[in-house]
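Final report, section 2: Outcomes. Of the targets proposed, Tyrosine recombinase XerD is the one most frequently requested by collaborating groups, and we therefore present its record in full.
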Amino acid sequence: MEARPKKLLDQVRDRLRVKHYAYKTEECYVNWIRRFILFHNKQHPNMMGPVEVEAFLTHLAVHDHVAASTQNQALSALLFLYRDVLHRDLGENINAIRAKRSQHLPTVLTPDEALAVIAQLSGVYRLVAQLLYGSGLRLKEALRLRVKDLDFSQNQISVREAKGSKSRFTMLPVCIADPLKEHLQGVKRLHQQDLEQGYGSVYLPYALERKYPDADRQWIWQYVFPSSQRSIDPRSQMTRRHHLNESSQQKAVKQAARKTGINKRISCHTFRHSFATHLLQNNYDIRTVQELLGHKDVKTTMIYTHVLNKGGKGVLSPLDACA
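The predicted structure is given below as tokens.
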């Protein structure tokens, strides 16, 4: 008896895992592909092409009023479906009505404001925020840090498999080295308890679990900021301790920002924006800042040069000139 062919969405999941996409990306792509199929009355994507893709993307922009980044995310999911699963070429251009890309500058805190927000945090939330501001990490990068990624002797952090599957080095602030070491002592005790209870395994990327069968229980591979609770890995179905939840850190930062009374829209990513801007204010070379941030193109880093200018591009108001 021949095995039944896998359902399309299961094929998508398999292909995403072969290419080592993150679990959240997997869920996101599968959701967009499902929405695309439902939008076209459950037609199989093999029976559709560029025209149907354009119609779906146009609907997202015109009727659902999605942001440009959301529409691009949907397009990426559909391109992956056709290119990597169905092995079809949609052509160079998808002529859909595109959502307008917002042209806002990033919110940046002054050094005093950044420290004021951090001062309202405590425990692990404070340590994470200090790394976001002191090292320029994205939130996911900070939460995915492993013990082996911290080099206290060199005051350096290895950021592995960051955005765009790139790796880089950034600084480890000297002022938080001792608090981090103390924090790791508690994490190590927690890991030892997990091992004694028959757990202690952590997710490893790629095929490392097969190559090194015991690596997932080794101390150096454990998360620097582990979750307080063990949970079931949705892919392997193993009970493991994942890293701290993103939403927990985001909520903690928003609450801390409210307590300071600073009239700015502050999020975890605001610390990264502030890190870059303050380095440029301190006359560090923009290429150095680009490398520390992990930007592929220096044009992305250039946005922070616009934030540097104060009071309308640094021009003195005529009203002030008369004073």
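The two ends are 91 Å apart (CA to CA).
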